[in-house]
Amino acid sequence: MPEISPDVITESTLHDTDDPAIWVNPKDASKSIIFGTDKNTEGAIYAFDLDGKIIQEKTIKGFKRPNNIDLEYGFKLNDSSKTDVIVFTERERQKIRLFSVPDMKPLDNGGFPVFSDATELDANLPMGVAIYKSPKDNNLYAIVGRKTGPENNYLYQYLIKSDSLGIHSKLVRKFGKFSGKKEIEAIAVDDEAGIIYYSDEMHCIRKYHAEPSDGDKEILCFGGQYFKRDIEGIAIAKYDDKSFLIVSNQQAGTFNIFNLETNTFIKELNLGTLGTDGCEVTTKALGNKYPNGLFVSMNEEKNFFFHDLAKLKLLE
C-alpha cells in the first residue's frame, strides 16, 4: 500500500508516546496546540506547535503513566466563567486529571479517583478516556476505560461539575461489553449525535449512547474483520454532509476509514506510522499550514505525525 508521507514529524518525547488531542485556538487557529501523552512512570503531557516543535511552557510533567487524553471547549466554572480543558488518565495513580487550556492549570485538586470499587487485579488502572459534552444540558462527562475488566460494565462514566465547593467527579453509570480478548483503551465521542465508539481491541468497534438517560444497550459491534489484530485509536472527522470514523489498524501499520452514519468500511490508508495507539482529527482550517484540517497520529518512535487532512482524501 503506498505511503502517504506526513507534513510534519514532531520532536521526540522522552519515553513513549500514546495519544494526542488538538486544541484549536479560537483567536488564531495558526497558533493551535497539539497535546500528546508520554506514557511512562515519569510521564508528561507534551504540547507541540503546528511545526511539531515542543512548547516547553505549555508542557506539563510529573505524572505517573499518563495514558489517553481528550479535550473539550467551554467548561463552566462556578464563577460563571468558562475555560477549555484537557482530561487525561494517570494510570499508576488510578485517577483522571483535569487541566485548563491554554494556561495549563490543574482544576482537580490532584485528580479524581476512578474504578475505586474494582476488586479484580488491574481493573482499577485507567487507560482510555473521552469527553462527552451533552447538547441537552452542557454537562461534561468523562468516559473511562481500563487495563482489564468484566464482561459487562467495563466502562465508567463520570460527571465533572463545578459548584461552590470546587470541581468534582461523580460516577453516573457503568456500561459497555468486553470480549475478554485483550483490553479496551481507545474511546471517542460524537457529541452532536450523543454516541460513544470504543475499541474492543481484538474483537470489534462498539457503539453506545453517550447520554446516561438514553440507556446502556449496545447499538452495534462492527468492523473487526478489517483489522489485522488490535483495533486502536479512534478519531471522528465531521463535515457538513459527511462524517468518518478513522481507526488505527495497529499491527498492520495502517488506518481503516468507516462511514460514520452507516458504520460501513470505506478504505484503508498507510500514513507511515508504526504501532499507532492514539489519533485525533479536526476538520477546521488551522491557518495556512493546514487549510483543510489536521490528522494527528502517534508513532512508536516517540513522536507524532501530522497530516494535512486533505491527504487522506476522505471526501473523494
Automatic annotation (TrEMBL):
Residues 1-316 form the BPP domain. Pfam families: Phytase (PF02333). Transmembrane segments: none annotated. This is BPP domain-containing protein. It comes from Algibacter aquimarinus.
